[in-house]
Every structure is written in structure tokens, then in C-alpha cells.
Specification:
By secondary structure, the chain is an alpha/beta fold. It is built from 12 helices and 11 strands. The protein has one domain: TIM Barrel (Alpha-Beta Barrel), CATH 3.20.20.30. The strands form 2 sheets. Strands 1, 2, 3, 4, 7, 8, 9, 10 and 11 form a 9-stranded parallel β-sheet that branches. Strands 5-6 form a two-stranded antiparallel ribbon. It is globular.
């Protein structure tokens, strides 16, 4: 089971490059960066800077979308960076959340995701894609680029199972939730083209390493709130359904994933623990061990989304955990 790191790029690019250097010298597979251009640093610029400063670490957006960036722009960006980085770029793609809603005033649709995926895949593999009866061609291709589709609801999971090289899933660390999401992916996998490999699974899990476990829980609470407001491919209790309703009613995209997000205050500690690995370094290490033992064979990768105020320190501590 690979372990990767996710970051929402709230810090200056020079700081994020330092984080990438720390992870480059570790067992971390990939540094995934969030893409929400109005509230964070621009992700592709940051990915390029990190690629220049590293030699081994793979990089990618988790996730971009086909609306705030035209799919042909994303395809050209990926192919260019693959050429520059010695093929270390991966692509996470979904309908779009804060980036789309804050820019266009609406969310994306599965139809738009399917179309955007098809354009990007065609341009990366063959350099050609047809859009509205027009033929697009790009100068640089990148055949074999991994495209992971992200989502939370059963229909998005089915689409990821049908099309993606991998699926980015958010059931947390609850084995029952993971099994239910896997069932939703299987619906789409039954529609995969003959001969294609099975879709790979990546868990997107909040993480905070702190000396004070209470502060660690507060760090990851906004992440859990964001997960819970979406459609889910697993069942939750009546209490959690009430929490979900409150989050949707009060959610502020200007504080998306921010520790200052008041909409996250309604999420209790026991629910937070189902979606995160948070606590001391030993707590996180033991949580990873339990997760590995629980999901061995069904999950290929866990991306730990660092939510601490000092993500450089957290990356250094995580490097020691992985070692």
C-alpha cells in the first residue's frame, strides 16, 4: 500500500517547495496539491516549481476539473510537465467543488466530467480529440498518464470505476464505509473496456500530527465537514445526517478546508476519527498500521492530507513515520 501526501496550497510557493524536498527524501510516493485558484496558490504553477526542486517525488492535482480550466489546457499542461519532470505527473479529476462554485456559481455535472475526461484522455494518448464537431490537436502528448477520478456519491464512484485508471475515494478509515464505496466502484467496473486493468483505489484521508491530540482533531475537523456535505456512497447514522444538513446550510466556500471554518464546529470528535488519522506521531503510525492491516488487498494507496498549521514540520514527522 503506497502512502502519499495531500496539501491544500495555502502557504507561499517557496514553503511548499520545501515540503516537496522533504517528501522527496522519504517513502512518500506522490505529493497531491489541491486546485482552487481563488482561495489557494495556483496548483499547476506550484507543481512545476516542486518538480524543479525534486528528483523522485511524483506530483499532481487532487483534484482539478474540466470547467474552471478547459480540458485541452489541462491536457497540454500535463503533457508539458510530463516531458519536463521525467514522467512524474499524475492527474486527479472531478466535477469541481470550490473552484467551480466560486467561479461559475454552480457545480459541475457527471456529463461534463465524462466529456472532459474523454477530451483529456484523447489529447494525452493520441494528440487528438473531437469537441462539438471540432477537432483539437496538441503538439505534445503523454501516453500512459494516470488519470484518477474523484468523487463521493455512488454515481460518481460508478463513473470512476468505469473510466479511471484509479479512483480517489473519501470513506475515511471506517472498514464498512470502505467496503460500501468499493461496491459502488464495482458497478462501474462492470462497464470497463475489455482488457483494461482494474481501477486502483486511493483513500483521501485527513492527517494531523501534533503533541496535543485535541489540537490535531481540530485541525482535521474542516476536512470532515467538507466530506459530509457531499453525496455519500456509504450509509451514516441519523445523527450524522442531521450534522450533514447543518453543514450544508452554513457552509462557507471562502473558508473551504480552513481551520477557521465555523461550519465545521458541529462535527463531533467520534465522527472526525472515522475520517482522519490525527494525534501524536505514534497515534498516526498506529493508525496507518491498522489501516494497512484492515484494507490490505482492496486499497492501493493512502493519501494523507496534511492539515496542520506547520505542514513542513508535519511532513518531516511523517517522513520519520514512513521510515
Amino acid at each position: 500500500m503506497k502512502v502519499s501526501v495531500g496539501l491544500y496550497p495555502t502557504a507561499p510557493v517557496a514553503h511548499l517547495v520545501d515540503v516537496a524536498r522533504v517528501l522527496d527524501d522519504s517513502a512518500c510516493d506522490t505529493l497531491w496539491l489541491g486546485d482552487s485558484h481563488l482561495i489557494w496558490r495556483e496548483c499547476w504553477t506550484t507543481i512545476a516549481a516542486c518538480a524543479m526542486a525534486t528528483a523522485r517525488l511524483r506530483l499532481g492535482p487532487c483534484v482539478t476539473n474540466p470547467l474552471s480550466r478547459h480540458p485541452s489546457v489541462t491536457a497540454s499542461t500535463v503533457a508539458t510537465l510530463q516531458e519536463f519532470s521525467n514522467a512524474r505527473i499524475r492527474l486527479g479529476l472531478s466535477v469541481g467543488d470550490s473552484a467551480v462554485k466560486m467561479t461559475l456559481g454552480r457545480g459541475g455535472t457527471l456529463k461534463e466530467l465524462r466529456s472532459g475526461y474523454g477530451i483529456i484522455r484523447g489529447l494525452l494518448e493520441d494528440g487528438v480529440a473531437v469537441v462539438d464537431d471540432r477537432t483539437l490537436e496538441v503538439a505534445v502528448t503523454a501516453p500512459g498518464t494516470e488519470i484518477y477520478l474523484s468523487g463521493s456519491g455512488p454515481r460518481t464512484m460508478a463513473l470512476a470505476g468505469e473510466l479511471g485508471d484509479g479512483a480517489i475515494v473519501v470513506p475515511g478509515v471506517n472498514p464498512e464505509h470502505i467496503a460500501q464505496v468499493d461496491a459502488a466502484l464495482a458497478v462501474g467496473e462492470s462497464l470497463r473496456s475489455e482488457g483494461r486493468a482494474s481501477v486502483r483505489r486511493m483513500l483521501w484521508v485527513a492527517c494531523s500530527i501534533r503533541e496535543d491530540p485535541r489540537e490535531a482533531l481540530d485541525d482535521v475537523r474542516p476536512f470532515v465537514a467538507s466530506v459530509l456535505r457531499h453525496p455519500l456512497a456509504f450509509e451514516v447514522s441519523a445523527e450524522v445526517e442531521r450534522i450533514r444538513s447543518s453543514i450544508r446550510e452554513h457552509y462557507e466556500f471562502g473558508h473551504h478546508m480552513a481551520r477557521t471554518a465555523e461550519h465545521a464546529d458541529v462535527v463531533p470528535d467520534d465522527v472526525v476519527r472515522e475520517f482522519a488519522l490525527a494525534g501524536t506521531r505514534d497515534d498516526v503510525a498506529m493508525g496507518l498500521d491498522r489501516l494497512r492491516d484492515t484494507v490490505a488487498g482492496s486499497v492501493d494507496e493512502v493519501a494523507l492530507v496534511l492539515m496542520t498549521p506547520d505542514d513542513l514540520k508535519a511532513a518531516s514527522e511523517l517522513r520519520e513515520v514512513l521510515a
